[in-house]
Structures are given as structure tokens and as C-alpha cells.
Description:
Pfam families: Response_reg (PF00072), Trans_reg_C (PF00486). This protein is of the alpha/beta class. It has eight helices and eleven strands.
Amino acid sequence: MRVLVVEDEQLLADAVATGLRREAMAVDVVYDGAAALERIGVNDYDVVVLDRDLPLVHGDDVCRKIVELGMPTRVLMLTASGDVSDRVEGLELGADDYLPKPFAFTELTARVRALGRRTTVPLPPVLERSGIKLDPNRREVFRDGGEIQLAPKEFAVLEVLMRSEGAVVSAEQLLEKAWDENTDPFTNVVRVTVMTLRRKLGEPPVIVTVPGSGYRI
């Protein structure tokens, strides 16, 4: 899942980003509304975690722009005000969910995951294919009943492949969904991660390389 965190309190923004990355999400961070508009014009995000009171361009205007563009991106709006009128106003702007500050990180993560599921074709909460069972909420992976320990990026790549339901996923698509914008697209990070993931999943191999196209399960 690709997430953009837009928050002018840099310590909070960086803490949220770090926590979401530990949950195997690819996260970009910006600290003002103008930078947010720049990012959404370049990258495809599943979810934008959007502070409302932003410098340069207000969070309300960022939300309006996402709606105007007809993007499938879901917006989780944050604000220091928890008044009902503020929540209603935020939702009427086009936000998909609303979370007042301060918030519990576990709740933020659950809401981001729930919104992320709404940007794709609906799938069961637990994904199963070729003897692999993946639970995104619990961050658990099993093969034929045995648990497999994966690093966050390995988990993210496996989740993207599982959600494709047998379709081929290119290296570029994996890079887009599992890594943030600071990753050099010319490295072999995708190939190396897939190789490590394939080894951890064991025999017989379930990740198939499609020459010139990508990977599938």
C-alpha cells in the first residue's frame, strides 16, 4: 500500500510515517499543502493521511483537488479539533474518514488499512492463494499451516502479488506500491527482495517470474 502523510508538525509526521512503514506500507512525507499537491500529481497513492491546518495550501483545498481529479485515492483527514461540526465539514469536502488529534496509532493504522481496501477490488480480509495465507491486519503469513517470518518489504511485495489474484505484476508496479519515492528505480531492489521472498516461502516455488513482464503467484 502506498501512503502519503501530509502534516506540518514534522515530529508527528515522521513518527506516523515510521510506524506505517513498520506495518509494511510504502510512505512518503510532506509538511505543507503545496508539496502535497505536487506529490499527488506525480505518484499514485492508495491513502493520503491529511492534516487539515496546513501552511501554503490548506488541507481542505488539497482534499478538494483530490476529489476534482477523480482520483481513487482515499483521504483520512486529521485535525486538532474533534467537534462534530468540523468532522461533518471535513467529510462534506470529500474526505473518506476523519480522525481527531490526539489519536491512538493502532486506530490510525486500522483506518488506513480499511481505506486502502476500498481503493481496490474488494477482497477477503485474509488473502489465500497457492497454499499461502496472508493476514494484512495481523502481519502474519502462513504456508500450509506453518508461519513464515518476513521483513516489512517482503511482506509488502507478497501482499501486492496476492492481491493481483494471479495477474502479472511488473517490477515497476511493485516498486510503486511497496517502496517510497526515495528508492532509486534503477537499483535491483525488487529482484533481490523477490529472490529472498521466494526462498523464505520454500518449495515448491510459488512466485513465478514472467520474462520481460514481471512476477505472479
